[in-house]
Amino acid sequence: MYPISYNNYSNYGQFYSPQQQYWADNNMYVRPYYEQQREEQADNVAKTAGLAGLLQVIALGLNKASQWFATKLAAGKEFTSAANVHHVANEMVRKNNLNVDIAYINDANKFSYAQRYNLGNELEAVAKGQNAFFADKIKLAVAPEHKPSLILHELGHAINAKSKFTKLLQNSRRYAPFAPTAILVANGLFSNKNDGKKSFIERNAGLLGFAAFLPTIIEEGLASFRGVKAAKKVLNNPAGLNILKKNYLLALSTYILAGIGLGVASKQAVLEDSLRT
Ligand SMILES: [Zn+2]
To answer: How many Å apart are CA 114 and CA 124, to the nearest integer?
Structure first.
């Protein structure tokens, strides 16, 4: 790359800079401005492509890290007996006036629950211990029978669904996956391709993508906080509570990684777009 900054190229109509004009007048070798300009652009493209590759590596790394946390979470111990968890869960429902059915899913009951609540094969993963969920529409919270403690977090979601603000946070997760596309569209609307400057959106695409997922991360953290709080009130078992907190932190980590992943995807979308134009 040639340091062209010491020459004044602000006048685009000018083919040679004063310096080049001097060289040209004196029969010295000179490269026309447009050639340098093209080199400069090629250099920027190379840099951008390098960043795109780096982002790809980061995205893969995030995926691996997320899988690691998920495996750790799956191997996590239960913090107390199933009977104690059931007791805490029932207390959460009673004290918060929740209109929610609780189901502890196993291989024997998964089909009857699926039929009763008109579900597809969602309970398959729950029976295996790989998932738990709360569905506001059908007022159902489920957890694996052999990992009942996950239900306290799901009931935390049920409590969040009752208040307007936290329900808003909950609903935002439906729109978060569209962040890279939305950022791309907004960048197209607000950036001026001709002035050569990057728009605010282009410069901050990563941060904006992460911000789109932040309400989800906050709502997830709050659901866990409510579960831990309820367990603390009903049971007097600090050592066990630390296990519960650790399990819930692992779960939250996967959400934080997903948020960073959305930021990376948003940055990638904007970068790919700038390479195309
Ligand atoms: Zn959750």
So the answer is: 9
Contact 69, 250 (CB under 8 A): yes
- DSSP secondary structure letters along 5-60: TTS----TT-SS-HHHHHHHHTT-----HHHHHHHHHHHHHHHHHHHHHHHHHHHH
What is the model's pTM?
Answer: 0.79
Distance 220 CA to ligand 1 centre (A): 5
Q: Which amino acid is at 149?
A: S
With CA atoms as reference, report the closest residue to 152 among 58, 245, 89.
Answer: 89
119: helix, strand or coil: coil
User: Contact, 10 vs 33, CB < 8 A?
Assistant: no
pLDDT in tens, 113-138: 999 999 999 999 999 998 999 999 99
Q: Cβ–Cβ contacts within 10 Å for residue 194, how many?
A: 6
Rounded to the nearest angstrom, the distance between the alpha carbon of 214 and the centre of ligand 1 is 14
How far apart are the CA of 154 and the centre of ligand 1, in A?
6
Express each pLDDT in 5-58 by its tens digit.
Answer: 333 333 333 344 555 555 455 554 444 444 455 566 666 777 777 888 889 899
Say how many Å lie between the CA of residue 94 and the centre of ligand 1: 20
